């Protein structure tokens, strides 16, 4: 009986001897395959014997270990293999890949030959270690023409098939011998099954879904909570000790994000993140209490994100998510999203006055009090800023918030009203040659009549409830927004007499709702929650592009009535399968209708509809040693301007070709994006939270509607990838350090003689600072350093911007519970850097020909602000 019972093991051993010997002659990886991305990825593990035998060995070893290892080891292998593939495709150097791949064959050969049994943690660790190097080899040899997502799906499919083949091989061998030799083999198999219970522990755990943990500070641990390495939270405590020169810089608390300005203070910021010059918000979704801020089909630019109406003192938390891996985020969210949440109550009442350089003044009053069964929150501010410019900004802002909320044991609701009004003059970017020649100073202007005004009024209603079985939330909102913007970026290029100033008026009503319902349930014995949601939005817009001189209209390029309607249902499931594995799966559908009526060019009238399905997925491994590993992927999109979607002729000339001779084509309504990310989050070192992520993003087209020209600019598919490392360290309860490092690479795909660089694409950001509070009787504050790296300004990289380095600091003292004084200093080093740079053609008065030149907006010189605050 015993002589026959060992037959299956020896058969497997004979087969697996090659796994020990084969590394001596293992082949290099397969050559590039000139076929589809999926087929290339699928073929890669099959054409390299080192990959093929290792994959089979993992399946055989999993089958030998039995129990949960049969599915845990293959999943752990492909999960970490995808992370390695992402790093390999990004071209990041990793040493010792080939030796490790060869070693993996020998190691798994020994494990299978000796039928070595180890605890679950050890077996998974071995598999994950070698999986990284196999994945790196796959990614490093991805054909340039292949899409990352399709290539990855290909090699993951092949790997799982090989794992499965190894598992089935063991089962078939055992079954064959059982059939031939009868009950002796069956008895041994049953005996092994019984032993497996002692060798492989069956882990079960209960997922505590209720009560939900509310994370309000970056200092709070997200291990066990977060779905990716690149999501996080920022709380009021971090904001109040941070020197901020303008409201848009609140978003710079998102690691790697830059909020700059190329015009007057009232204009939307210029944003940069993950290899993007996001313009005014094209691919970064910003929400206030769940209400989207980005404006579709805006007169100046798609995705217009104006957050000048924010009052920093009222912010409770900022929740950010990077990448297109989240089912609740739709349009504009391919690079990321941030949801800024206002508080329902404040600890007391605040009165603050701030004065500073360049005629800066701010008065703030805010607070909350009990009213009836609820709480009334209020906040109001008046701001004036002259700025260092030769033509002063004369920025004047009135801003207010009023919220009434009620909270019960398991439900609550709120109604919020906001009102904002601002007017300003603008010193837009200026050509370097005009400064070098002495025509204007560094803070001068070539058109002193540029500027604008903006109004925003909104009302939002929110209701939520939660019990042991489910949670629901409903938000409805209505917004009226208007903008009058006057700009002149080319001076006398188009009209040598009147100049090139143009106006972009925009009036719109935006209404919408966000509804979600989450079920807390089980899948078998595993804790799970599933969410169904619906988002509906409608924008009724009246905007245009007008020709002006000193803000007086003399011509019309286009004048449009636009309606954009978006309906988006979505579904998401989160399940915890073991103590170290949880998954997130989601899908959303976005349906759009674009309706345009151009009173100036009827040929551009029309209605188009489009829809797109975007699946999302994420896997979390751990925690082990207070560390989690993440793997995320998803499809997303960004919408194009409704006017470009329906455009058939050039709005200025009426021709079917533009000024460069290219045909005027209607833009694709919805452009697909593909994203993937791998990373880790750790709190292993006491007081330190650190996240590391490697990400990838492909876009089918960089097609954009140029509001300044009233037409569509066609561009090529692109690819971006990079590394982000964010750190937050609190060695004591009164001292905090943070340091965030972001490095990106952005390229157009395909070959073009013009070059493959994406103009303005951010490449490197370093942001770091230190904060102290409540020391030596009440001192608080600290320094902050921001490094905004150089960027290509043209496709062939022949012209680049310089880097921007800004050092700022805050120092304050809290005398008692009532009185606080603080000082802020900006650009302490008084550097003469640029806030932003562009390279394009312009013509000054008196110049005979247009000139290509760098156009820049300078950072403000060293300046200070002093604040006195009363809390009562």
TrEMBL record:
GO biological process: iron ion transport
InterPro entries, per the entry: Beta-barrel_TonB (IPR000531), Beta-barrel_TonB_sf (IPR036942), HupE_UreJ (IPR007038), Plug_dom (IPR012910), Plug_dom_sf (IPR037066), TonB-dep_rcpt-like (IPR039426)
Keyword annotations: Cell outer membrane, Ion transport, Iron, Iron transport, Membrane, Receptor, Signal, TonB box, Transmembrane, Transmembrane beta strand, Transmembrane helix, Transport
Location of the TonB-dependent receptor plug domain: 233-337
Domain of life: Bacteria
Tagged with keyword Transmembrane: yes
Subcellular location field: Cell outer membrane
Keyword Membrane on entry: yes
A GO CC term assigned to this protein in UniProt: cell outer membrane
Transmembrane segment boundaries: 75-96, 116-136, 148-181
Residue span(s) of domain TonB-dependent receptor-like beta-barrel: 421-828
Signal peptide: 1-28
Topology with respect to the bilayer: Multi-pass membrane protein
Pfam families: HupE_UreJ (PF04955), Plug (PF07715), TonB_dep_Rec_b-barrel (PF00593)
PANTHER family: FERRICHROME IRON RECEPTOR-RELATED (PTHR32552), TONB-DEPENDENT OUTER MEMBRANE RECEPTOR (PTHR32552:SF81)
Protein family per UniProt: Belongs to the TonB-dependent receptor family.
Name this protein carries in UniProt: Bipartite protein [includes a nickel-iron hydrogenase, accessory protein domain HupE a putative TonB-dependent receptor]
Origin species: Methylotuvimicrobium alcaliphilum (strain DSM 19304 / NCIMB 14124 / VKM B-2133 / 20Z)
